[in-house]
Design brief:
By secondary structure, this protein is an alpha/beta fold. It is built from 13 helices and 15 strands. It is elongated.
Length: 372
């Protein structure tokens, strides 16, 4: 096989030119990482160079996660400070995990460690920043805020600013807004359109969208059927008013009836069932995608991780869209986030939070009938 020629590398620049480059040595192939497939590993674990009058060792992400990784070799080769650059993806609690882990290589090397991390969203990943500096004893002396770009100057050794980590609900919610705004903007969409059922999932999705993009870039669409309750429509209307977004009501009765009539010769006298339920969901998907194609906003799907894990969704129906805001949020956490968002004022109607979840695709349907 042809050897790989591309490396995951960082360059040291001085006076408009490249002084040296460092190729990442440890290439992870777990979780979301697949670097060993694409990159050739570096062979200079002790690469150091002078930055001003200080000798620095530069490494990339995984290199510092291994307690015997390249930063130890760099310190042994004379590095007076270790600089580690990262694109470390976020999950809830990841910032605390990094802090606990990073003190060890600083203590082991006996020199300060500067850890800098990417901020923003890229496809399904979110990066939370939260850059940190540790002294030679492994103590945290600086921490940048989460989910915000930061520029800081710190004399090492010395004390910087240690920003507090965000509380659980705020951390997760901010991750959702960060991931959404970058996905929409990087892909050139004018905004988003969301089907508002009056339920908690679509309500939370809409709140995240408004907080990420602003109300002027969010369109809400209620698509009632004969099985939709009055409070579902009124809760959707109230949510749109609270958020200040453009709102439309587009009933699906006509589309549904046309599909059922067209399918009549095939369905015959078979009783109403799952097929008719899914025709309703797919009618809504068609309408949302039509609005997206005509007006330009991307469709957001509203399913949560609990539903996706067990397949409680309709292919080409409520799964139709370009981005799923809640795809990694369990249903229990959806409730937590909705209540957290309402702490200062009611944004998500309490009816959407308190009523039993229902797809409303048949009479008196409740999600708990199908999901134990």
């Amino acid at each position: 096989a042809e050897p790989r020629r591309v490396a995951n590398a960082v360059a040291l620049l001085r006076d408009g030119g490249i002084v040296t480059t460092y190729d990442k040595v440890l290439l992870p192939s777990y979780g979301v990482f697949d670097e060993a497939r694409y990159f050739r590993p570096g062979t200079r674990p002790d690469a150091t160079d002078a930055i001003g009058d200080v000798t620095a060792g530069v490494s990339i992400c995984e290199d510092v996660w291994d307690e015997d990784g390249p930063p130890l070799a760099q310190a042994a080769a004379g590095a007076e400070v270790l600089l580690n650059v990262n694109a470390s993806p976020f999950h809830h609690g990841k910032a605390a995990e990094r802090e606990e882990m990073l003190g060890s290589p600083a203590r082991g090397a006996g020199v300060p460690l500067v850890y800098v991390n990417l901020v923003g969203g890229q496809d399904e990943l979110v990066f939370d920043g939260c850059s940190m500096v540790f002294d030679a004893a492994g103590a945290l002396v600086h921490r940048s805020p989460q989910f915000a770009e930061d520029f800081f100057v710190l004399d090492v050794p010395g004390a910087g600013t240690v920003e507090p980590l965000l509380p659980a609900e705020e951390e997760i919610y901010t991750a959702l807004t960060t991931g959404l705004v970058d996905y929409v903007d990087k892909n050139g969409f004018s905004g988003v359109v969301i089907g508002l059922s009056g339920g908690i999932d679509s309500a939370l999705t809409a709140a995240v969208a408004v907080d990420a993009l602003g109300p002027e870039r969010v369109v809400g669409v209620s698509m009632p059927s004969e099985f939709s309750s009055d409070h579902s429509v009124s809760d959707a209307e109230a949510l749109a008013a609270n958020l200040g977004i453009e709102y439309h009501e587009v009933p699906i009765a006509g589309a549904y009836d046309a599909f059922v009539e067209a399918l009549g010769p095939v369905f015959g006298d078979r009783p109403f069932g799952l097929a008719e339920e899914n025709v309703q969901a797919r009618s809504r998907g068609v309408l949302l995608m039509a609005i997206s194609n005509k007006l330009g906003p991307m469709v957001l799907t509203t399913g949560n991780k609990s539903e996706m894990a067990v397949g409680y969704a309709t292919l080409y129906g409520d799964m139709a869209g370009g981005f799923s805001v809640l795809k990694d949020v369990l249903k229990t956490k959806v409730y937590d986030l909705a209540r957290w968002r309402n702490e200062d004022a009611e944004v998500i109607p309490w009816g959407s939070i308190e009523k039993p979840p229902s797809a409303e695709l048949r009479p008196d349907q409740k999600d708990s009938d199908s999901l134990p």
